Amino acid sequence: MFTTLLIILVVIIAAVLVYAATRPNDFVVSRSASVKAPAEAIFPLINDFKRWPEWSPYEKLDPQMKRTLSGADSGKGAAYAWEGNSKAGVGRMEITNSVPASLVSLKLDFEKPFRANNTVDFTLAPSGPNTTVTWAMRGARPFIAKLMGLFMNFDTLIGKDFEAGLDNLKRATER
């Protein structure tokens, strides 16, 4: 009886591991919002790390977070490193591309609570008096992330933060 249960358990674990291995190697999380403001009013808040406390939900994870700005004042070459509590973690991001009023691309590197290297794009697309702002993050999904993804939905977890940030951008720029 015990041997049969052990064999069934090993088969189940093996099936979960094999299934996790078949999951995609990359991930994308993306959210969009329509903001009643011109792209020119929204862009400076994204393109300048000094303005991120006005809207980024991640800025509120640790009131004691240590922040270091370096490189350019804003736009391409501007960098922002942080060290915070277990929620905020440790990492660095740098603006790698900046197209006025339409695109800000970032290289995002996490050190803690886990290592990850991702890219982030903020795109701004005018639509009449509004602007559609899209916040997207892409990256590799190593095996452990594939396995964890079977039990938790990263799109939902990260997506809710993106939605909160986009709502904050709306409040900061809508007239």
Description:
With 175 residues, the protein is an alpha+beta fold. 32% of the residues lie in helices and 37% in strands. The protein has four helices and seven strands; from the N terminus they run H-E-H-E-E-E-E-E-E-H-H. It has helices spanning 2-21, 39-47, 143-149, 154-173; strands spanning 26-35, 66-71, 78-83, 90-99, 103-112, 116-127, 130-140. Strands 1-7-6-5-4-3-2 form a seven-stranded antiparallel beta sheet. Strand 2 (66-71) and strand 3 (78-83) form a beta hairpin. The longest helix is centred in the N-terminal third of the chain and has 20 residues, at 2-21. The model has no long low-confidence stretch (mean pLDDT 90).
Portion of residues in helices?
A: 25-40%
Report the sheet with the most strands, covering strand number, pairing sense and barrel closure: 7 strands, antiparallel
Overall pLDDT:
90
Number of helices: 4
DSSP strand tally: 7
Rough shape? Answer: elongated
Assembly level: single chain
* Rg over CA atoms: 20 Å
- Which secondary-structure class do the elements indicate? alpha+beta
Order of helices and strands: HEHEEEEEEHH
Poorly predicted segments: none
Order of strands, widest sheet = 1-7-6-5-4-3-2
Strand content is 35-45%
Distance N to C terminus: 70 Å
How are the SSEs placed, and which strands pair?
Layout: H1 2-21, E1 26-35, H2 39-47, E2 66-71, E3 78-83, E4 90-99, E5 103-112, E6 116-127, E7 130-140, H3 143-149, H4 154-173
Antiparallel strand pairs: 1-7, 2-3, 3-4, 4-5, 5-6, 6-7
Keywords for this structure?
175 residues, alpha+beta, seven-stranded antiparallel β-sheet
